[in-house]
Amino acid sequence: MACFARGIPSAGGKRFLLRIGVSVCGFFLLFGGSAQSGEVPVLGRRVAIQWAFGALPAGGGELRAMGRESVLKTGDRLKMMVQLDKTGYVYVLHQDAGEEITLLFPNGLEQFDSDYRIGQAYYVPRGEDWYELDGKTGREVFTLIVSPERLTDLEKLYTCYASSQGEQKGEWKKRLQDEIRALKKQQLELAAPAERPVTIGGTVRGLQKPLVKERPDVASIANPIQSDGIVVKVFSIDHR
Fold first, then answer.
1. pLDDT of 9-48, one tens digit each?
2. Rounded-to-integer distance, Cα 85 and Cα 181, Å
3. How far apart are the first and last CA of the chain?
4. Where are the domains of the chain?
5. Do 223 and 51 meet the contact criterion of CB atoms below 8 Å apart?
């Protein structure tokens, strides 16, 4: 099975996540709350970020920005970059061919309270690492969400999903997917979205490897995303 190029939490850290998850999920089930169940739409405040998603072919070649519907091959490498131009909150989620969902950015929800500021370039994966597609092929979905306000319900749903097992995990996954669809509907309800188009996309399966000097800075292909309200972009990869 493919794995993500992310740090693996210690056993103690995992137990902490499970304890928090049980507490949050119990409260969430009792009191509810989500974009699909009456939460006030996140509209009317401008969001602005710089965003880049680049791919390098396995056999060598130039860095290229990925499209909404893309075809990539095993061994291709990918990297993302996000930079805030205005106060807002950015989430990057990935669903692999096995329908497992992983939060790629922020690097832990606590990052919003510690290392998150305007003008700072954040790379995914961090530092000089890139993602490399492994041998597990299939269709994968990459979702970028930019919001003027922190999406606490989305965060709670992801926490519940990540900390659950068995049938409960499937139930939380459905609720998380429904929440993302509801947020996208909010975006579609904007009367006059002032969003500048940008061509991006990608996948994040496989193991990360060190960046070598000849690899370019993915920030060099960054484009602005601006809108008077929430932005949800979904990209698909046919990994062959």
1. 333 444 444 455 555 586 565 555 555 544 545 555 889 9
2. 26
3. 15
4. 42-150+177-239
5. yes
